[in-house]
Amino acid sequence: MDRAPGLSVRLKLTLSYAGFLMLAGALMLAAAWLAGQHRQSFEFLLRYVPDGAISTTGGLVPGNSSFLLRAFAPAAAIVLAFLLVFGLLGGWLLAGRMLAPLTRITDATRMAANGSLSHRIRLPGRRDEFRELADAFDTMLTRLEAHVAEQQRFAANASHELRTPLAITQTLLDVASNDPNRDTGELVGRLHAVNARAIDLTEALLLLSRTDQRSFTREQVDLSLIAEEATETLLPLAEKRGLTIETSGDMTSTIGSHALLLQMATNLVHNAIVHNLPEQGTVWVTTSVHPKTVVLTVENTGEKLAPQLVATLVEPFHRGTERIRTDHAGVGLGLAIVKSITQAHDGTLTLTPRAAGGLRVTVQLPAAPSHTGR
Question: What pLDDT score was predicted for residue 100?
Answer without folding.
Answer: 77
